[in-house]
Here is the input.
Amino acid sequence: MKYFLISLILLGISSSGLAQEAEKHPFLKDKFYVSAGIFIPQKELRFGAEGDITDDIDFGQSFDFNDNQTTFFFHGEWRWNKKWRLTGEYFAVNNAARATLERDIEFENITFEAGSFVRAGVDFSLWRIFVGRTISSGPKHSLGAGLGVHAMNIGAFIEGEAKTSIGDKEFRNPKFSVLLPLPNIGGWYHWAPTPKWVFLTRVDWFGLTIDQYGGSLWNVAPGVKYQIIKNFGIGVDYRFLFLSAKVNESDWKGRFNMDFTGPTLTLHGNF
Here is the structure.
């Protein structure tokens, strides 16, 4: 009888240990995952238009934009089976400022000379849509890859009392706006050492010329998430988003380079 009781106790401990080992972090198994929070990027915004003979305009430096800006961030994921998932993300940045130029700049064939009092603005919004397939998975990890698109809406303007190459005048440069779709390949790796903690990283890349668009993209996001209760948690990651493109459309012909780097703080729900 004594040996029977000892065997039952050992079996119970073993079963409990196996159950603990088999338990997955919700981020690795739940069908739906939604997070929202704030993105605090340090940004660099440089534009050039067709016909410019000077270097690209650094909007942040020329017009004294804030280097850091807090903006809303959204992420959602739907895993419709064990292998496949659909992911969406969104954030937007808007800047406008007035400045007296310290040096000549040229934008869309108009030269704004040093001393001109101008106002400038930049609007940027990004949607990331990604379809991925799990390559390897287990109780504590997930590795996958897929294809996606970064759809960006970009706009900029310069206006004000200007000393220009065509004389001093009130000048308003109509705001250009272009919708730029950049397809990309990507991959991810998630590691959950416990049912509460998961460490993750993701990389997207693009470098190609397609019709009237050409450019490159890097989007890297390492981070960590903590599961507070069954269906709710918090997370923090650090994003590196580097964009460079040339556009040759009837509405606007030009180029831009944009860098966004900074932390994202989010609350998430999973079910």
